[in-house]
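G.,

No rush on this.
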Amino acid sequence: MIKEVYLIKDYNMKIYLFLTIALLNINLYSQDNMKKIINTTNAPAPVGPYNQAILIDGTLYMSGQVAIDITTKELVKGTIEEETEKVMQNIKAILNEVNFTFENVIKTSIFITDMDNFSKVNKSYGKYFNERSAPARETVEVSALPVGARIEISVIAKELN
């Protein structure tokens, strides 16, 4: 009888220990994988109900960036190359906020209002990536972009192991 009581207590203790460890692991996992809002003053502030980026599970989902100058809060007016350069600088500022670089970028989406500018955009954009490890990408012509921009680029980046 005494031996059976000890076995039951030992069994109950093992269950309690297992549940405690499981709950701790679930809590740690959920904390690591919580959605983290990313906003930096080094890139243009959102102009609507969205954030500059979201980091979850080591992946950064960045909202589309246009060529807004953070000091003037105005769209850069100039050549498409100058506009593209400003967009890439804004992207870099958000990447830097989470200690990422352009090497972390795995996917981009480029929206331009005139496909005739494709080669110029491609040349300016290409300066930021190593050709051998450049991200996947699509480029789409659209009829219009916010604030009269001619280019917008969104990014997905991933923590490197």
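When you get to it, here's the other one too:
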Amino acid sequence: MTIYVGNIPYAFRENEISEVFHKYGKIVSIKIITDKHSGRSKGFGFVEMETEEQEDLAIKECNRCVISGRSLVVSKAHSRRGYEPGQ
């Protein structure tokens, strides 16, 4: 399971996301999605934690929390399987 994190402040880097989520358990990976041309953050990313229980707690505690004036949107990430471009 992976956590979707939306409405991330554009200036945030992976270490700042880590500061938000590390208190809920061990982080396996963090990926902030960036524009392939400019390299600028798109304002969302993904956090993977060691256990599903840790991820559930992080979702519960971090959804709608305000970070640098922005209210994070935190939920279970959905698979892109079956996704067709243009849908």
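The chain has one domain: 3-76. The first strand starts at residue 3 and ends at 6.

Enjoy the weekend,
O.
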